[in-house]
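Thread amino acids onto this structure.
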């Protein structure tokens, strides 16, 4: 075997390795992917976030009402526990074995924490009716906003396509 042939084969192997590395993404991409949490997977039928014990929660919590009732809700573990107590006292919900209740509360508080899904954002000032109790400073601000003399930071982020 001639030395140039061997050299070419090594060269071809190196090119192959470089191509594979570039297909797999640069180390910078990998680091970025690791620092961002993976987007949560949603079960299309129930609309629930797929996470540990989600099927237990689906079984326990969607026989009386749609899962939308809790996927639109958000709360701490205590809030969720209070809600379950309320349904048990007032809405005919049965008692859960402690281990099951623990799984339900862990799933709900991890995936539906306070503030995230329960409330939409305030309307920007220019879409609200005039506030009769407003201060002079606020009235002046809103007047300028309507006249286009100043810009609202909320409107700017909306124009950038955020919600
Ligand atoms: C035995 C039937 C039943 C089961 C099972 C049940 N619920 Fe409910 N739940 C109700 C009723 C009845 C209401 C009141 C519905 C209404 O107001 O229209 C309600 C309301 C709710 C609300 C809305 C509360 C509010 O403030 O409007 C949430 C959130 C909720 N349930 C979550 C859950 C979760 C989480 C589970 C599982 C642990 C669960 N439900 C299981 C009967 C049940």
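Threaded sequence (163 positions):
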């Amino acid at each position: 075997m001639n030395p140039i042939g061997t050299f070419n084969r090594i060269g071809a192997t190196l090119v192959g390795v470089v191509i594979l590395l570039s297909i797999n993404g640069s180390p910078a991409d990998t680091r970025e992917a690791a620092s961002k949490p993976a987007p949560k997977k949603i079960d299309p039928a129930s609309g629930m976030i797929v996470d540990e014990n989600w099927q237990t929660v689906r079984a326990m919590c969607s026989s009386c009402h749609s899962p939308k009732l809790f996927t639109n809700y958000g709360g701490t573990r205590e809030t969720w526990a209070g809600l379950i107590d309320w349904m048990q006292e007032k809405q005919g919900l049965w008692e859960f074995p402690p281990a099951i209740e623990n799984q339900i509360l862990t799933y709900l508080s991890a995936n539906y924490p306070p503030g995230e899904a329960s409330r939409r954002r305030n309307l920007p000032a220019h879409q609200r009716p005039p506030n009769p109790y407003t201060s002079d400073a606020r009235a002046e601000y809103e007047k300028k906003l309507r006249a286009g003399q100043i810009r609202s930071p909320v409107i700017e982020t909306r124009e950038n396509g955020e919600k």
